């Protein structure tokens, strides 16, 4: 883990000063139950009542909640097996029962809790909502500040494995000049961030909040990175183009031209004018629209109906797992991780069954299945439609992503494309599956933006 105590930079002094001011108010040694996550996370309260103060957070889940979780898993009333030999009817029964067996008898949440508590975690109120974030500073003084945003069905847990490679690059075969100071927030309604009680917390408001967060931490210039919904937020940040934003790196780019979107919505065959790469992307997008977007449609229109996500651990787990990649649903890496072996020749990379359960368990303990789903309801544009972004942009295209963005579409969507690369392994959960490769992509993609 990188040294989080390196002194001297203006950003570091600003951050330390903000925390020191709260200490001086006499409150950091007294922890109170966090308002947004009763009984599982403790947040230091600012002595002067200033909720915009940067307040340390620590996680501790009462054993009674873990006992109740295991009891509920064991009490699951299972349906009959699907009537097909593939996953075309949804997450297969055998996959869910294997995951539930391990979840109830072999899984240890305390390991994830210890990892969370080993990282510098904080909460600050922005625009009336508590935002949770991990803040890890590099020991390398000239490191680039970078805010990394997770997606759905993810959380900050997705980024655990990239923290050290990005903040401590010299320990991973890279140069000190490639170092980053990392800020990894939980999206509104996710994890330990607050659950919005009014409408309006979609990608646009979140993007503006991230700018406030980085400035509050003392970063005068910074870059942004994201995949899935994190990529959506990054794209909005790019469109807003605040003067502090150096550029963005996305591994879930929004590149689909308007005429292609129109053809997809009409269910038309691929236009004859498409190149091979464009045709492949079109076929991936068409397949996803026809067979793999039911979860997004429900969350985008009727998220409150999903009461089972709050009542049943297995219902929550199956809903979170039903997310595809460029070829199959559930994503190949998730299936391979659950069974702890390659499935149909596909590997999980570095993603493990316990990684998957760490993420699902966080959703369960924070009861954020529905509040996270509402982010889709709050989103009012096509996530994949051409981004029309002019800030410097780096794009990494992983082969198992939902679709492989062609360079031709990418250049039209991002008007200042500084980096484009197609990888030979990795998928939708790239930071989880291939953390070393992912870190290399972030370094390479943003290298030209360093000042």
UniProtKB/TrEMBL annotation:
Catalytic site positions: 228, 376, 428
Entries under PROSITE patterns matching the protein: TAT
GO molecular function: epoxide hydrolase activity
UniProt KW keywords: Aromatic hydrocarbons catabolism, Hydrolase
Protein name in the entry: Multidrug MFS transporter
Pfam families in the cross-refs: EHN
Signal peptide: none
InterPro entries: AB_hydrolase_fold, Epox_hydrolase-like, Epoxide_hydro_N, Epoxide_hydrolase, TAT_signal, TAT_signal_bac_arc
Any single GO BP term: epoxide metabolic process
């Amino acid at each position: 883990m990188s040294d989080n105590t390196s002194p001297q930079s203006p950003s570091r002094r600003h951050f330390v000063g903000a925390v020191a001011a709260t200490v001086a108010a006499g409150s950091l040694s007294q922890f109170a139950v966090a308002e947004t996550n009763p009984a599982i996370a403790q947040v230091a309260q600012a002595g002067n009542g200033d909720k915009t103060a940067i307040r340390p957070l620590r996680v501790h889940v009462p054993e009674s909640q873990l006992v109740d979780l295991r009891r509920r898993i064991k009490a699951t009333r299972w349906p009959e097996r699907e009537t097909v030999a593939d996953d075309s009817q949804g997450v297969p029964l055998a996959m869910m029962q294997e995951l539930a067996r391990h979840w109830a008898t072999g899984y240890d949440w305390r390991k994830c809790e210890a990892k969370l508590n080993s990282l510098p975690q904080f909460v600050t109120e922005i625009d009336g909502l508590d935002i949770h974030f991990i803040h890890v500073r590099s020991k390398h003084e000239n490191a680039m500040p970078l805010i990394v945003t997770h997606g759905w069905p993810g959380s900050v847990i997705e980024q655990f494995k990239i923290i050290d490679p990005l903040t401590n690059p010299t320990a991973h075969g890279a140069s000190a000049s490639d170092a980053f100071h990392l800020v990894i927030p939980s999206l509104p309604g996710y994890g330990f961030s607050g659950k919005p009680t009014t409408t309006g917390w979609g990608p646009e408001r979140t993007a503006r909040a991230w700018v406030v967060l980085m400035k509050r931490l003392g970063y005068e210039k910074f870059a942004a990175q994201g995949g899935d919904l994190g990529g959506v937020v990054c794209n909005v940040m790019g469109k807003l183009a605040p003067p502090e934003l150096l550029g963005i790196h996305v591994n879930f780019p929004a590149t689909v031209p308007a005429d292609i979107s129109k053809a997809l919505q009409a269910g038309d065959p691929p236009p004859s004018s498409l190149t091979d790469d464009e045709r492949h992307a079109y076929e991936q997008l068409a397949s996803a629209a026809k067979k793999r977007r039911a979860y997004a449609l429900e969350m985008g229109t009727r998220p409150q109906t999903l009461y089972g996500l709050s009542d049943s651990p297995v219902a929550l787990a199956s809903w979170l797992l039903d997310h595809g990649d460029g070829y199959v649903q559930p994503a190949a890496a998730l299936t391979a991780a659950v069974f702890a072996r390659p499935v149909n020749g596909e590997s999980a990379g570095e993603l493990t069954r316990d990684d998957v359960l760490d993420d699902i368990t966080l959703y369960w303990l924070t009861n954020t299945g529905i509040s996270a789903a509402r982010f889709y309801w709050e989103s009012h544009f096509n996530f994949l439609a051409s981004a029309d972004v002019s800030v410097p942009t780096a794009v990494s295209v992983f082969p198992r992503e939902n679709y492989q963005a062609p360079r031709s579409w990418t250049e039209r969507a991002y008007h200042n494309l500084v980096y484009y690369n197609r990888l030979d392994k990795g998928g939708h959960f790239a930071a989880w599956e291939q953390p070393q490769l992912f870190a290399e992509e972030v370094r390479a993609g943003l290298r030209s933006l360093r000042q």
